[in-house]
TrEMBL record:
InterPro entries: Pirin (IPR012093), Pirin_N_dom (IPR003829), Quercetinase_C (IPR041602), RmlC-like_jellyroll (IPR014710), RmlC_Cupin_sf (IPR011051). It comes from Tenacibaculum platacis. Belongs to the pirin family. The keyword Oxidoreductase applies. Pfam families: Pirin, Pirin_C_2. Residues 11-121 form the Pirin N-terminal domain. This is Quercetin 2,3-dioxygenase. It is an enzyme of class 1 (oxidoreductase). GO terms for molecular function: quercetin 2,3-dioxygenase activity. Residues 150-236 form the Quercetin 2,3-dioxygenase C-terminal cupin domain. Transmembrane segments: none annotated. Its EC number is 1.13.11.24.
Amino acid sequence: MKLEKFSADTRGFANHGWLQANHSFSFANFYNPERMQFGALRVLNDDLIAPSMGFSTHPHQNMEIITIPLSGVLKHKDSMSNEWLYVKPNEVQVMSAGKGIYHSEMNGSSEDYLSLFQIWIIPNQDGVNPRYNQQSFDPQDRKNKLQVLVSSLDDTNENGLKIHQDAKLSRVDLDEGSTFQYNLKSQNHGVYVMNISGDVAVDNQELAHRDALGVSDTDEFSIQANSKSELLFIEIPMN
C-alpha cells in the first residue's frame, strides 16, 4: 500500500479579500510541479467566499466539476438555465462541462460566509453534451457508514449523482474511537482522503483538520477515528 500525506499547511493559499482559497493542487497563481493532480483528480479547492461575492460568468470545457457546500448557500447559474439555482450544505452539485459551458457561482447570502469544496475530475470522454444536476443527502445516512455522493454514469449503482469518469465520491462521519474500512474498486484506483474535521489515523499517518492522504496500490485500508471526524473520499483511476 502506498500512502502520501498532504498536510493542510502545504496547500497553496490565496487571499483575495472576498475569497480565501486553499488549493490542494496547482491552480491559478499556485504552482507546484509535484502537486499537479492525483490520478484523474485535478483540482480540490477549499474556498471561503464573502457574503454576496463570487465568481462572475466564466467558461469551462471537458471537465467534471463537483461542488460540495459545507456551510452557507451557493447560488449558481449557467448557460443551460436562466434561473439562479441554490445549493446548500448536505447537497452536492455536479456539472459536466463537456464541449463547453458558461456559469456563475456566487455566495447566495448577504450576511453569511460560504464555505465549500470544489473538485475537478478529468473525464473519460471529451466533447459530451453539458449537463447539470444536484441532490440532497441525509447526514444520518453517513454516520459510521459510507454514503456515496457521486459515481460513474456507467455504474449500476442508482444512488447519488453521476459523472463521466470511473470515479466515486463519498463521505463518512465517524464517532470517536470507531474504525472504518474502505474498499477500493480495484488496485488501478486510488483514493484521496480529505479529513474535513477531526483527528484520524491510517496506518501510522495521522490526519488533523483538512489534512489529506493519497492511498493507492491496495484493495482496502482502515481508518481509526481518534476523535469525532468527518471524511471525504475521492476515488479515481490512477492511470
